Amino acid sequence: MAVLREIFSPITIMKIICAIGIAYCGFLMCMKNMELFRTKEGEENVKWGLQKKNFISTAIIGFVANFFDTWGIGSYAPSSSAFKFTGSVDDMLVPGTLNVGDTVPVCVEAILFFEAFNIDPLTCVLMCVAATVGAFVSASIVTKWDRTKVRWGFGIGLIILAAIMLCRRMGWGPFAQGNIEYTADHIGQTLNGLMIEKVGDDIAAVGLRGVRLVIAIVINFLLGAAMSLGVGLYAPCMALCVLIGLHTGMAFPIMMGSCAFLMAFGNGPKFIKEARYDIIATLNQAVFGAIGAYLAYITLTVAFSLSTLTILVVVVCFITGCLYIKDAIAGSKK
User: Fold this and answer.
1) Which residues of the chain have pLDDT under 50?
2) Which of 152, 195, 211, 291 could form a disulfide with 207 if both were Cys (CB 3.0 to 4.6 A apart)?
């Protein structure tokens, strides 16, 4: 019975879904590549993508971008900039290349992190599903929002949240009063909607119950919906997890699982259908990106303490907030 419970556990099922997503996108891309050779426009895209001079540059970009993506920094912006700087991917093919190629690394990240920090399966599943559903069912509503105002809101909000998290971590000002130190006596208990367990050398919250869980589900649903506007989920999801009381590490399986499901069964197949991707760059994003993600995972789980992880989240949220504001300013000038 114990073996069956392990095989059919929610975390194992989520891993299997990610693996299916990788296989599904790989199959679709193989079929689309065969189809491309039969059309003039498709053949031109294929010939561009098969240029050997772009192999090394796109391999390096895939590795580096997805290494830092695993740390929560994101891979789209650095990859896009690097493609532009090296001239390795046609501008027209960049969005599809990133959405299709990064599907594999993000799914690998999710598979690795689902059990890395001993997260509560119910919390992880519900928050991932909420974000995925939000991205699908809210697209028609969210696309009517003012993109510039949303970016201003996310940018300012993330910078404020980063400041609050830093104050809490460092014990500065009134926000430090919210800190709670858990002891071995708290392990296995649920305190104020927080499930306490041992996480490595730390004793911290690994799951949510009651009102906290409902709040987290609703907000992650909205974060998933906001992805339709090009607003990334990683940084705000990190901030949500930390501020609601979870161990910082819990943010990684939640945010990566959310994006993995969305990309594998939503964005990836959509861009494959449109055939707007660079073949070599896409494969390099997938293969070398997955290698970079794995090495980053080892570094993150072995070398980073709770305190260091929290500081990393603060830095990521601050940088992402600044990038949102930069995009908002650029958008308001159009």
Assistant:
1) 177
2) 195
